[in-house]
Each structure stands twice: as structure tokens, then as C-alpha cells.
Design brief:
6 strands; Nuclear Transport Factor 2, Chain: A; about 50% strand; 6-stranded mixed beta sheet; alpha+beta; 3 helices; single chain; about 130 residues; globular; SnoaL-like domain-containing protein
């Protein structure tokens, strides 16, 4: 069972992410937060602490002209909350993998959140 406070914090984070509001995102983070992005089973980005996360979030926000995570399901396990998401974004830059400005990305994935002292202490994004 996911408590309302935790669900509200996660929804607030996703809303801030969708609106490119990095400052609001970081207000929801624990000072010792850990972030990992895992794609095809491999970690391709990792930060430790709010400042490293903020730098990555600001850098990655410039890659997209729009982006939206839509939560499709919640589940709780141990002390973690897992959300399943549908992700859609429009590129604002050309990427080295051949994707071009204006290309639309559509993915499904999940994010795992850990909480500490009423703040997000862990985010693991899986795609």
C-alpha cells in the first residue's frame, strides 16, 4: 500500500519533470539522493546528491522541446514505490544515435522511488 503523502510527492515530481521545472524537482529531493538511469539493463547515467542531479536534469531538459511521463500504475515493494509510465517526448536537438530535431520518442518504462525523511532519496528510471 502506498501512502497518500508519498504518492503526492511522486506525482508532484512527475508534474515538475513534465513542465521542465528543475527547481521544483530538486525541492522534493533528499540531500543524499541517488539517481540512476538504466536502459537495456545497463546504467547509462548516475548521480549522487542534489547538485549532481540538478546539473544532469538541466542538461537533459535542453534535449527536448516537450516531454511527458504519464503514470499508468503504482506498486509498492519493501520500502520502494514503483510506477509504470508511458513516456512521450519531442527532440529539440539532433542526437548522435541518428535521431533528429522534431523526432518523437514513445517509450514505456518504470521508475522506482525510495523515500527518506519525507523526501525522494532514490530514483531509478528503467527503459
Amino acid at each position: 500500500m502506498i501512502n497518500e503523502e508519498t504518492q503526492g510527492i511522486i506525482e508532484n515530481y512527475v508534474e515538475a519533470y513534465n513542465s521542465f521545472d528543475v527547481e521544483r524537482m530538486v525541492t522534493l529531493l533528499h540531500k543524499d539522493m541517488l539517481f540512476r538511469n538504466i536502459s537495456n539493463g545497463e546504467i547509462n547515467a548516475e548521480t549522487s546528491g542534489i547538485q549532481e542531479f540538478k546539473e544532469l536534469a538541466e542538461k537533459s531538459s535542453k534535449i527536448f522541446s516537450s516531454r511527458r511521463q504519464t503514470i499508468t500504475n503504482y506498486s509498492a515493494f519493501n520500502d520502494r514505490v514503483e510506477i509504470h509510465i508511458d513516456y512521450e517526448a519531442i527532440l529539440a536537438v539532433d542526437l548522435p544515435n541518428g535521431l533528429k530535431i522534431g523526432d518523437k520518442l514513445q517509450l514505456t518504462g518504470k521508475s522506482v522511488f525510495g523515500m527518506k525523511e519525507g523526501k525522494i532519496s532514490l530514483i531509478e528510471d528503467y527503459s
